[in-house]
Amino acid sequence: MKSTIKLLLISLFLSLFFLEIYAFDFQANCEEKTFVVTAYYSPKDWQVFYYKENVVAEKMLNWSGTHGASGRGVFNGMLAAPSTYDFWWKIFFPSFWVGEIADRGGAIVHAGERWDNYDRIDIWMGQWEEWLIRALTFWKRTLTWYYCSKTKLQSINANPTVWLNFDYIPVLKNFFDATLFIQELHQWRTDIRVYKLQEYLMKFWYMNKKTWYFGPETKNALCNYQLKRWITSKKYCWDFWALTRSYMKLESKNKLFLPDFTETTTFQDLIDFAQNYNWSQKSISHINDRLEATSKNYQLISYFSQSYKKNEQNPKIKDLQDVLRHYWFFQWELYDKYDAKTIQAVYDFQLASKILDSNDKTNPARWWLGPATRNALNQKRAEFQERKFSN
Question: Cα angle vertex 288, ends 285, 291, to 5°?
């Protein structure tokens, strides 16, 4: 209860804080509208796991993942919307700031189509496994937000910064158990989803080992499970289809097989989970290298994760200064103190990145390493590190 109240207070504070920064009242100037909201991401060839069977099927579901239908490259805050919403219209999310329409999609439809009661909006949530996990955790929600046309924004001389704080989209504890029951699985698949299915079939005494492979053993076990319970006929019994998933989930809950799904955890915890399950047993080669690459990429994009008080000392401040120096905002030797020189460099970076407006001299976010500033710095650090590694 306390953590829920704390999260709500933080959400309220940040909403008010961002509104104060940009001095723009979305509620007063934009149209309130209810959407059906889903999420998508950009798959990569080296991922440890996918939602679909492989990267080819994943890209067919999620697209190639490099540019939106507008032609613009992917960016934090990119939204896909039906064609009646022009590109570059903005949508305000009271909990985590502003998105901008720059994409379309076959499933992005108007109210009344595909059984949706409201217009559909899709949020782009980044690349590789972490963002697949966040997208699946978000799943499908009905939410009321505010949207502004480009014409309306121009008429009131407003240009709110596009940026979404994805800290508000956590990941599920026991993620792979939770998502086992929302997805069809097919024969010949080889990954942790199959491993999880086999784990549950073992709990019901239909298998005696886990192989990661949806082959004859798994097909026979799944058939026996379904036929015993009169779920389907022998002709279709090797499909892990919707009714089977619902039945197994309910039975697992009744038998206390299901772990807790309600708490949230970090993506690093999921990497640890994968290591504990010994990915090297999988038949896919070089899986440990891919896991290491995933971990490294995650560390690059989440390195700066806190703000600092004036004159505070922290070893990471050297890295902050290093990134700022690389982009010509900091011109001194590196040290570990958040002093006036570092603060001025951060402020110059905020202005150059259009996180803040130079006309607002009293802005309380000046020099503060808030979420938007940290996000921009992490992106710059990732670019900087990538160049260092490639040289």
Answer: 120
Interval 7-35: pLDDT, tens: 444 444 444 444 443 446 666 778 888 88
Closest CA to 378 of 160, 166, 170, 169: 166
Chain segment 330-362, per-residue pLDDT in tens: 888 899 899 889 988 888 888 888 777 766 665
CA atoms within 13 A on the CB side of 111: 7
3-class SS of residue 368: coil
Least confident piece of the model among 43-57, 70-84, 268-282, 355-369: 268-282
145 pLDDT above the threshold of 80: yes
Kindly tell me if the per-residue pLDDT of 171 is higher than 80. no
Eight-class DSSP state of 281? G
319, with CB counted inside 10 A (0-12, 13-18, 19+), is middle
Cα angle value 142/147/152 (rounded, 5°): 165
DSSP assignment of 308-329 equals --TT-B-THHHHHHHHHHHTTS
> Which residues, 6 or more positions from 103, have their beta carbon under 8 angstroms from its beta carbon?
68, 69, 70, 78, 79, 80, 81, 122, 124
Q: Which of 145, 166, 174, 196 is nearest to 35 (CA)?
A: 145
Segments in 240-363 forming alpha helices (H): 242-254, 267-276, 287-301, 316-326, 340-352
Number of helical H runs and strand E runs in the chain? 14, 9
Q: With H, G, I as helix, E, B as strand and everything else as coil, classify residue 365.
A: coil
146: enclosing H helix or E strand = strand 141-148
CATH topology of domain 303-390: Muramoyl-pentapeptide Carboxypeptidase; domain 1 (1.10.101)
Helix crossing, 371-390 with 316-326: angle to 10°? 70
Whether domain 2-172 has CATH 3.20.20: the reply is no
Where in the chain are the domains?
Answer: 2-172, 179-261, 303-390
Q: C-alpha dihedral over 76, 183, 140, 253, to 10 degrees? A: -120
Rounded to whole angstroms, the Cα distance separating 147 from 160 reads 12
Q: What is the largest CA-CA distance in the chain?
A: 74
Distance CA 299, CA 98 (A): 25
Residues 207-260: pLDDT tens digits?
A: 998 887 888 899 999 999 999 989 888 877 878 888 888 889 999 988 888 887
